[in-house]
Design goal:
The protein has 78 residues and is mainly alpha-helical. It is 72% helix and 0% strand. It starts with a helix and ends with a helix.
């Protein structure tokens, strides 16, 4: 772990920034439409769950088309 500490710390910082940005995007777009995104802590939890595939795309799409397609594009596997 000592040998890869610098690389891991860089990854943690980069991941935190990107994950925080996605969470903030979903929070500001969906907080008035979906109960799962009404506060930032719930948004963080649901964004993490969405990243492993546990989400209802239909409800997300019904709440906001832009948020649904943004998540779908960034989460699609190449």
């Amino acid at each position: 772990i000592k040998l890869c500490a610098q690389g891991l710390s860089t990854f943690v910082v980069e991941f935190s920034i990107v994950f925080g940005a996605f969470s903030a995007f979903f929070f500001f777009i969906l907080k008035n439409h979906l109960d799962n995104f009404r506060d930032f802590l719930r948004t963080l939890e649901n964004t993490l769950a969405m990243s492993i595939g546990k989400f209802n795309f239909g409800a997300l799409r019904e709440a906001d088309e832009l948020a649904a397609w943004t998540f779908f594009i960034f989460s699609s596997k190449s």
